[in-house]
């Protein structure tokens, strides 16, 4: 119990006199006074002990999350990356004509400038592969590669990264000579004059996620077979489905252009006459999901792409286009080694 302002002073009266009438004289009831004194000392000792233990036992405050203001990408987790080589030489990344690192980070939407300074001091920021732990560094945003918690910042203001939730009946081209609805019909005036690439294709009857960008290197890597970028699809087909179909698809089925297989197969839902299946595969062959399900005797009734690499469709409205956040762009770049 923490002593009150009067604890330990029961043996003194007004004016500092003890019960004997002499200033400072000890109380006659010594045991009680000693007990009170010991209690006060014990309380003070306990309080002192607790005070000395609290800094060690106290939990450290959690780190401030980067890109905390972004709606999308919060559940992507840390970026997986290879550890830096020990033989990598230390280079001078300071550019006297550049802008301060914390200001650049704040402009990129990482956090406030003050929080960005804390991130630098905590060793969470890299410039050109080198960890920065001191303030005052200036960098050239057009040349420097800046990463926060392993997430690379896209500092080129002219780079565009979009997610399009393609409806059924839309062709995966920017313009269609036959007059069918195409991607350009959904682009706002802001992007209508941009030269955008659609990353991969969805056939006219397939719905879902389609990435649009003017980053040619990223688009090339996302579609190149060597990077094996996974894609997740939701398949509706006839039901009930016989046992063993999932195992057959995971082991591989023979198609006209070779053997193809899914990475994962999961039954999501079942209604009278229909089943919903979620499959993940990294193949980018033309109409690969439809051809695989045809091969096992379950033609696709409806097909929706839900995810490409780390980018998810989520609850995005069909026919809408949204801009990827810095966190999503960073994960997307990291997934193909950029």
Automatic annotation (TrEMBL):
Q: Where is this region: Disordered?
A: 1-93
BP terms from Gene Ontology: enzyme-directed rRNA pseudouridine synthesis
Bias (Polar residues): 34-56
Under the heading CDD domains, the entry gives: PseudoU_synth_RsuA_like, S4
Keywords linked to the UniProt accession: Isomerase, RNA-binding
UniProt EC number:
5.4.99.-
Keyword set includes Hydrolase: no
Any one GO MF term held by the record is: RNA binding
Q: Name one Pfam family in it.
A: PseudoU_synth_2
UniProt feature coiled coil, ranges: none
Its EC top class is isomerase
| Catalysed transformations (reactions) | a uridine in RNA = a pseudouridine in RNA
> What region holds the RNA-binding S4 domain?
99-160
- State the family it belongs to: Belongs to the pseudouridine synthase RsuA family.
Under what name is this protein listed? Pseudouridine synthase
Species name for this entry?
Psychromicrobium silvestre
């Amino acid at each position: 119990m923490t002593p009150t302002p009067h604890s330990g002073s029961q043996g003194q009266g007004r004016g500092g006199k003890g019960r004997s009438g002499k200033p400072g004289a000890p109380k006659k009831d010594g045991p009680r006074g000693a007990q009170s004194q010991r209690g006060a000392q014990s309380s003070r000792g306990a309080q002192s002990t607790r005070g000395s233990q609290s800094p060690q036992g106290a939990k450290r405050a959690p780190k401030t999350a980067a890109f905390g203001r972004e709606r999308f990408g919060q559940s992507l987790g840390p970026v997986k990356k290879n550890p830096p080589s020990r033989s990598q030489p230390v280079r001078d990344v300071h550019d006297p004509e550049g802008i301060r690192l914390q200001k650049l980070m704040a402009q990129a939407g990482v956090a406030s400038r003050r929080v960005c300074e804390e991130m630098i001091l905590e060793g969470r920021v890299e410039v050109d592969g080198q960890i920065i732990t001191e303030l005052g560094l200036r960098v050239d945003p057009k040349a420097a590669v800046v990463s926060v918690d392993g997430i690379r910042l896209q500092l080129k203001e002219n780079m565009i990264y979009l997610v399009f939730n393609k409806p059924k009946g839309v062709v995966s081209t920017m313009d269609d000579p036959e007059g069918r609805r195409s991607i350009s019909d959904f682009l706002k005036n802001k992007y209508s004059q941009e030269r955008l690439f659609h990353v991969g294709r969805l056939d006219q009857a397939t719905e879902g996620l389609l990435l649009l960008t003017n980053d040619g290197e990223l688009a090339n890597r996302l579609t190149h077979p060597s990077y094996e970028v996974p894609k997740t699809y939701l398949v509706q087909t006839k039901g009930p489905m016989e046992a063993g179909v999932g195992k057959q698809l995971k082991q591989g089925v023979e198609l006209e252009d070779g053997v193809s297989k899914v990475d994962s197969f999961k039954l999501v839902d079942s209604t009278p006459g229909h089943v919903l299946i979620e499959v993940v595969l990294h193949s980018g062959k033309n109409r690969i999901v439809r051809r695989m399900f045809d091969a096992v005797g379950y033609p696709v009734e409806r097909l929706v792409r839900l995810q490409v690499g780390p980018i998810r469709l989520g609850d995005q409205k069909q026919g809408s286009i949204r801009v990827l956040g810095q966190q999503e762009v960073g994960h997307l770049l990291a997934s193909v080694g950029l």
